Amino acid sequence: MDAVSSELGWTSYRTGTFDSWRGPIHTAKEDYVAEEVPVVLVYNTIPHVVMLATPLNLEDFAMGFSLTEEIIGHPSELQSIRVVQRSKGVEVRMTIPEARFEKLHGKGKNMTGRTGCGLCGATTLEQAIRHPHHVGQGLALSAHLLSSGFADMAQKQSLNLLTGAVHAAAWLHPERGIVAVREDVGRHNALDKLIGSLAKANCNFENGWLLVTSRASYEMVQKAASVGITLLAAISAPTALAIQLAEECGLTLVGFARHENHMIYTHPHRLQHYQESAA
């Protein structure tokens, strides 16, 4: 395969010619294949975790991961960040306050995180299941804006339009529609990238809504609630633990959001429907 579209020498996708079969008809077809590489997150010169990720928007990823894993409490605490290409992967080198690093150093997370892993090397139940603070009031979202947001989001997933292999997380603004999209082979990585990009722009996480192209797993709810997001809408289903956490922390959780259909699992007051608007 040939490598194309590089960031720091690594590629977000590759091209190649493969055997294509449609029933009995065989052709040689060029295809685009999403890339994933080991990404080492390093804090104050100490490697913390290795994640498999798409090598795009890695500074956003590092910022979002640091916030949603509560390694830092505010974007300003990420004092420096540098992305370094290695022969077998990428290092993201960060500097955080020494007090934060001392707490991190005892967490024992120096493990590899698989593409679909959301626990990132947690070694205790307390680390694995964190309970965020109760989210704020947030804004009410119309069902029409939700469906149009997902439609717009699909057209802005440039990497997925090529490869069909990556997840996306998007931010839906009440007046401007979809204002940010981040993609990755891992759904948690895509969400961390989005949160990181929004945090760097000083986004108020109560003034918009989160849309994701994956299922709504427990870790997705946890990451969203940890920064104060009040509504998470997913294309696929939630898990029972995700529903439990969303109910507990006050987050509105929506699943199976496709076309004009959806299911509301928790705190339905933030989603307005057509008959409610007419009334």
UniProtKB/TrEMBL annotation:
SUPFAM superfamilies: Cytidine deaminase-like (SSF53927). The active site is at residue 117. It comes from Methylomonas defluvii. It is found in: Cytoplasm. InterPro entries: Cytidine_deaminase-like, FdhD. Its main location: cytoplasm. Keywords: Cytoplasm, Molybdenum cofactor biosynthesis. This is Sulfur carrier protein FdhD. Gene3D superfamilies: 3.10.20.10, Cytidine Deaminase, domain 2 (3.40.140.10).
